[in-house]
Amino acid sequence: WKVLPQGFKNSPTLFDEALHRDLAVFRVQHPSLILLQYVDDLLLAS
């Protein structure tokens, strides 16, 4: 999916699940980094 309809109630959950899958390898390769997620915003800190 690329775009979800406005008011779609499950979009934060779907985004979180997709992001978790996409970043799984990255998190293993960079264990000292902290990745904070708020809805669809990301903050990468080291």
TrEMBL record:
* Source superkingdom: Eukaryota
In this protein, which residues make up the domain named Reverse transcriptase?
A: 1-46
Could you tell me which Gene3D superfamilies the record lists for this protein?
3.30.70.270
Spell out the Pfam families in the cross-references: RVT_1
The region annotated as signal peptide is none
List the InterPro entries hit by this protein, alphabetically: DNA/RNA_pol_sf (IPR043502), Rev_trsase/Diguanyl_cyclase (IPR043128), RT_dom (IPR000477)
Identify its protein family: Belongs to the beta type-B retroviral polymerase family. HERV class-II K(HML-2) pol subfamily.
**Name used for this protein in its record:** Retroviral-like pol protein
Q: What organism, scientifically named, is this protein from?
A: Mesocricetus auratus
Question: Which lineage is the organism of this entry classified under, starting from the top rank?
Answer: Eukaryota, Metazoa, Chordata, Craniata, Vertebrata
